């Protein structure tokens, strides 16, 4: 048994496409600026294990595989607790700003699939909180105001990266 979720959003940030793409492609440093990303472990040049937790009390364990890394399209396949795809389409809007079109389609199984029948609105809200953290952290990072969050103990796990060299 599985349940499919589809999420879409459009954001605009006042930074060039290349700068936005550079931050999005640098998975290893997501814990530095995206509060809900707890840890990232490189599994090779195109693969990473990511632990993330939003407002609800469960942590997703995901394996990401880069499918396409050249702007305007950034695409990643997802496996683990979620199975599917994540896409960013980046385009210049003028004056150095970037339009970011986000698309995610994933299937959940097990307990999350069962919970979806009664708690689907709550799970969608949880995803919205996760993406709000992404947008806020991304804007700060691009503006050069983002700083490392001192939550090393919370993020610690064997074989994971708990903050970037910029700390």
Can you offer a commentary on this structure?
The protein has 167 residues and is α+β, with helices and mostly antiparallel strands. Helix content is 31%, strand content 41%. The chain contains four helices and seven strands. The chain has helices spanning 17-25, 30-33, 110-143, 152-155; strands at 2-13, 37-44, 47-52, 60-68, 73-80, 82-94, 97-109. A seven-stranded antiparallel beta sheet has the order 1-7-6-5-4-3-2. The radius of gyration is 16 Å and the shape is globular. The model is unreliable at 147-167 (pLDDT under 50).
Defining traits:
167 residues, single chain, seven-stranded antiparallel β-sheet, globular, alpha+beta, disordered C terminus, 31% helix
Give a brief rundown of this model.
The protein contains four helices and seven strands. It has helices at 17-25, 30-33, 110-143, 152-155, and strands at residues 2-13, 37-44, 47-52, 60-68, 73-80, 82-94, 97-109. A hairpin with a 7-residue loop joins strand 3 and strand 4.
The backbone outline, from C-alpha atoms, is globular
Low-confidence stretches: 147-167
User: In which range does the helix fraction lie?
Assistant: 25-40%
The total beta strand count reads 7
Number of helices: 4
The end-to-end span amounts to 43 Å
Largest sheet: 7 strands, antiparallel
Protein structure class: alpha+beta
Please provide the ordered H/E string of secondary-structure elements.
Answer: EHHEEEEEEHH
């Amino acid at each position: 048994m599985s349940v499919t979720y589809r999420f879409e959003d459009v954001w605009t940030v006042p930074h060039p496409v290349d700068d936005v793409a550079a931050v999005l492609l640098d998975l290893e440093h997501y814990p530095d600026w995206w509060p809900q990303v707890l840890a990232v472990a490189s599994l090779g040049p195109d693969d990473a294990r990511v632990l993330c937790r939003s407002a609800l009390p469960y942590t997703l364990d995901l394996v990401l595989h880069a499918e396409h890394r050249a702007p305007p399209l950034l695409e990643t396949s997802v496996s683990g607790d979620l199975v599917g795809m994540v896409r960013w389409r980046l385009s210049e809007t003028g004056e150095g700003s970037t339009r970011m079109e986000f698309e995610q389609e994933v299937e959940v199984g097990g307990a999350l699939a069962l919970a979806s029948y009664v708690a689907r609105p709550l799970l969608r809200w949880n995803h919205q909180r996760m993406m709000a953290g992404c947008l806020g952290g991304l804007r700060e990072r691009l503006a050069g105001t983002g700083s490392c969050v001192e939550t090393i103990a919370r993020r610690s796990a064997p074989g994971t990266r708990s903050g970037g060299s910029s700390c």
